[in-house]
């Protein structure tokens, strides 16, 4: 056997998975189709404090975010957060990704860059994997194949594990010249800016990351580039963008909702490949690390016993049902407060948010990682939102 595990993809989730397995004396080969880690860059680069603590890579942080200015369609705004509590670390994704993968290599992971997987055949006691790189095609035998190969996962498609329940499109520009505030990100809403979701401007050291993310079904014939052009050139916020100069552009899918099945016999999916991104922000690093941590102990036992049957991996997969449940409720609350309301309703929601007692509640309970408790309190405690509570399903209110 060439390895116990082959991991396809060397992003942060694949890197964290590789290190976690190798630390437990599992022989790991990790393959990455690109010649560089962290390229192409397709992420806002936000890492929550809890996720950062798992890898200890604070030196990759460009700036810290403690608050947000949220702008309604009519131009009104609220500011939330406090400098005393860091909400997100904005990292250099190339340095962060490289460092996470390096931790795995230092632990014993064999990393193959510039290498593609082109076939995988299941046998009774292993999977035969065919890879291709500059030296030609090679066959490797492994006991478990893990797909951490992103939104377009080859492993997911090859194993026929279905499509993500929800896919958003993310578009981002890195630019200089935006008059932002230190430690604060801006969020812009409205049908003409980001129908159903929002646009963001994230401080990034000497630059800002200006992004749009939307569900593909909400944009009609408009592209993310057209929405970006409207925000920066035609909206009531145009003056803020008048002096920006673009440095780079990126675009990519954001899969969310968690696949119904993320495992098959001798196959498991992780991170974006498993559609693990948060439906409220699109963040995938924190949930991806959490998925690895939840599945790892039983996965180690299964590897040591060579019990990688479909039924046993399905039992191991149930460990992430808590993520599924939380993301489902978060998506339902997102729909109530943002995605399924029109601009007039959204303006009314912002008016309620601006009330001192509601702002106090938001600052007390607001958590990017765990938005559900705040959403439930808003529905239950704020009189103006009780009509929304009537629309809420039983599963939102009870978690059933």
Characterize the structure shown:
It is a single chain. This protein has 400 residues and is of the alpha/beta class. It has three domains: 3-38 and 92-164 and 259-324, FAD/NAD(P)-binding domain; 54-91 and 166-255, D-Amino Acid Oxidase, subunit A, domain 2 (D-Amino Acid Oxidase, Chain A, domain 2); 329-398, no CATH class. Helix content is 35%, strand content 28%. The strands form three sheets. Strands 1, 2, 8, 9, 10, 11, 17 and 18 form an eight-stranded mixed beta sheet that branches. α1 (12-22) packs parallel to α3 (93-107), α1 packs parallel to α6 and α6 (285-305) runs antiparallel to α7 (310-317). It is globular and about 60 Å long.
Q: What is the general shape? A: globular
Radius of gyration based on Cα positions: 22 Å
Query: What's the architecture of the largest domain in CATH terms?
Result: 3-Layer(bba) Sandwich
Low-confidence stretches: none
Please summarize the sheet with the most strands. 8 strands, mixed
């Amino acid at each position: 056997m060439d390895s116990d595990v082959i991991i396809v993809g060397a992003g942060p989730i694949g890197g964290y998975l590789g290190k976690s397995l190798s630390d437990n004396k599992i022989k790991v080969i990790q393959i990455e189709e690109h010649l560089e880690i962290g390229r192409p860059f397709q992420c806002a680069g936000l890492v929550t404090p809890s996720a950062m603590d798992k890898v200890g890579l604070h030196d990759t942080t460009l700036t810290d975010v403690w608050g947000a200015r949220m702008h309604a369609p009519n131009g009104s705004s609220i500011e939330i957060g406090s400098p005393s509590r860091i909400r997100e670390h904005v990292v250099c994704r190339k340095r962060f990704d490289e460092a996470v993968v390096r931790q795995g290599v230092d632990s014993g992971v064999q990393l193959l860059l510039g290498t593609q997987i082109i076939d995988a055949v299941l046998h009774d006691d292993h999977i035969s994997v065919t890879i291709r790189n500059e030296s030609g095609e090679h066959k490797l035998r492994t006991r478990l194949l893990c797909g951490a190969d992103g939104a377009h996962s080859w492993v997911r498609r090859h194993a026929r594990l279905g499509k993500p329940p929800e896919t958003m499109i993310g578009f981002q520009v890195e630019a200089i010249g935006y008059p932002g505030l230190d430690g604060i990100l801006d969020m812009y809403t409205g049908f003409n800016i980001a129908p159903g979701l929002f646009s963001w401007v994230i401080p990034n050291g000497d630059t800002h990351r200006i992004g749009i993310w939307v569900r593909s079904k909400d944009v009609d014939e408009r592209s993310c580039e057209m929405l970006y052009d409207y925000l920066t050139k035609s909206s009531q916020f145009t003056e803020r963008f008048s002096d920006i100069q673009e440095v780079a552009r990126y675009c990519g899918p954001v899969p969310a909702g968690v696949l119904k099945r993320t495992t098959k016999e001798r196959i498991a999916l992780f991170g974006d490949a498993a559609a693990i991104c948060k439906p409220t922000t699109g963040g995938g690093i924190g949930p991806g690390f959490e998925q690895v941590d939840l599945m790892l102990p039983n996965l180690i036992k299964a590897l040591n016993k060579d019990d990688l049957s479909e039924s046993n991996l399905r039992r191991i997969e149930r460990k992430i049902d808590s993520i599924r449940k939380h993301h489902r409720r978060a998506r339902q609350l997102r729909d109530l407060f943002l995605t399924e309301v029109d601009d007039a309703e959204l303006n009314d929601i912002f008016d309620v948010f601006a009330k001192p007692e509601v702002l106090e509640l938001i600052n007390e309970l607001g958590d990017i990682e765990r938005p559900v408790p705040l959403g439930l309190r808003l529905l239950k405690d704020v009189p103006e939102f009780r009509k929304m509570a009537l629309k809420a399903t039983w599963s939102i209110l009870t978690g059933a």
